Amino acid sequence: MGADRVRLNRTRRCARVLRRAVPVAALLAHTALASEGELEDQPPPSSAAEIVTQIERMVPEEPTTAPARRAWLPQPLQTLPPFFADTQLDARFRTYYLRKDRSDDELSEAWAMGGSIHYRSGWLAELFQAEIEGFTSQPIVAPDSRDGTGLLEPVQDGLNVLGIANGKLRYRGFTLTGYRQYLDLPYLNRNDSRMIPNTFEAITLEKSGGPLRFQTGYVWNVKLRNSDEFVSFAEALGLDRDRGIAYGGAIWDPSEDTHVGIYLGGMPDVATRVYAELGAGCDLGDGWRGRLDGQFTFIGDVGEDLLGDALDDTWNFAIRAATSHGGAVFRLGASFAGPNPPNEGNFGASASYVDLMQRTFNQAHEKALLASVSYDFAGLDLDGLTAVVNFAAGFDAELDGGRHESREVDLTLDYRLQGGWWKSFWLRVRGSWLHQAAAARDGTDVRVILRYDFPVI
Q1: Start-to-end CA span in the chain (Å)
Q2: Residue 248 and residue 387: Cα distance in Å, rounded?
Q3: How many CB atoms lie within 10 A of CB 171?
Q4: Per residue in 394-445, pLDDT tens?
Q5: How many CB atoms lie within 10 A of CB 165?
Q6: How far is CA 365 from CA 109, 171, 311, 354, 399, in A?
Q7: Cα 94–Cα 98–Cα 104 angle in degrees, nearest 5
Q8: Residue 69 has what DSSP assignment?
């Protein structure tokens, strides 16, 4: 009886918080949003409890169980030491069609095919692991006059690159990773929304177990998603210097439904960025879940200020409320931008809640209202089918000496086969419409992506 009363009181407190927060968000938005960083490599969540923000992706929780050995391997391989027996070799196929009709009358279009071969060893004496992944993206239909999709190298050329090549050392919950690797930091991440993700040359140290997790490191080179070359960050910004990014970030989970996270990254003589996030969720009863997230970003120039007038101090604040029931997830929120645009470079998907397919609504002085509804059709016996509709409206954006308004609506349909060898078959169809008051025409964006990952051994 006492436990039931505690649970009831906790539910009532959570409901009071959400009753205050959701009407505020509802006044600010009138249909939906899930940021691109949360959608890039997964379908939309089927519950508010499954939402994973960019700060949570930074240091994912350590698996509680070791991966199962592949039962179909020949018996002699199953008896080898874990470094060999737990080896994973996967082929990751991808084909992608993208047509982008921009509001400035520019047209980009391409259909590409490729993917990657990924190898990861098991752990040697529980201390060492190796990982390698080679990528390719080749044109099927790609007119030179329609460059700019990000699927291929300019101008519509295929590319091949060894994007991942690293070794890991693990000891007492700490993992040190060196050389080419993925990063999933706020604003510095794989941005896996084209054929090939961003990858980085770095040395990183992380602790992924327990309620307090962290990652820190130094990143000296980046390979952008439409390039086969690793270059320094300063060179990627067009500067005749050699600069990397030092960073540190931590996330604390005081309870199963609450997290607090912070990230700090800086490039000497160029810029520094601070990102902070708070999220809390709870069970509202009768199958309803609730969640409230807030984020704050600050960007400032440092040292010699090599970007000059191209970058001045600015900030962004956003809040988002979510609730879910029976496979449907509803989100409402708002974003407020500082006095200057965030022009320090794009090395990953934005952590902003208002990052959509065509625009991130964070220009100087811009206020954005957002909303989203997604649905998992598993409850209708359509396992693997999900849909999400995102809407954002921006006001007072300072562009070209004036204040402008814009609206964007995105639709995403995902279908993933369930079970067996085909469980990684994933078809994604996306469409986007963007209206900008000062533009000559509306912009549209159509994407069709087919992915299939399958084990080789």
Answers
A1: 53
A2: 35
A3: 9
A4: 999 987 767 789 999 999 999 998 777 777 899 999 999 999 987 889 999 9
A5: 17
A6: 32, 47, 15, 14, 10
A7: 155
A8: P
Give the residue ranges of the chain where pLDDT is below 70: 1-35, 61-78, 344-345, 401
CA distance 339 to 341: 7
- Cα–Cα dist 266/304, whole Å: 13
The secondary structure of 6-68 as a DSSP string is: HHHHHHHHHHHHHHHHHHHHHHH-SSB---HHHHSSSPPPSSGGG---HHHHHSPPPPSSPPP
pTM passes above 0.70: yes
d(C-alpha 193, C-alpha 112), whole Å: 13
C-alpha torsion sign, points 218, 173, 210, 34: positive
pLDDT of residue 309: 79
Query: What is the pLDDT at residue 30?
Result: 32
**Within the chain, what is the greatest distance between any pair of CA atoms?**
71
Token pair belonging to 50: 């499954």
- What gap in Å lies between CA 330 and CA 337, rounded to an integer? 24
The pLDDT of residue 439 is 83
Cα–Cα nearest to 51, from 391, 315, 333, 263: 333
The predicted structure's pLDDT at residue 81: 86
CA distance 175 to 207: 6
Percentages (nearest 5) of helix, strand, coil residues in the chain: 15, 50, 35
For 181, counting Cβ atoms within 10 Å of its Cβ (0-12 exposed, 13-18 middle, 19+ buried), the class is: buried
Alpha-carbon distance 260 to 263, whole Å? Answer: 11
Nearest to 224, CA basis, from 154, 281, 271? 154
Alpha carbon distance 407, 417 (integer Å): 34
What separation in angstroms does the CA of 8 have from each of 1, 2, 13, 124, 430?
11, 10, 9, 49, 41
E strands, 196-257, are 199-207, 212-223, 231-232, 245-255
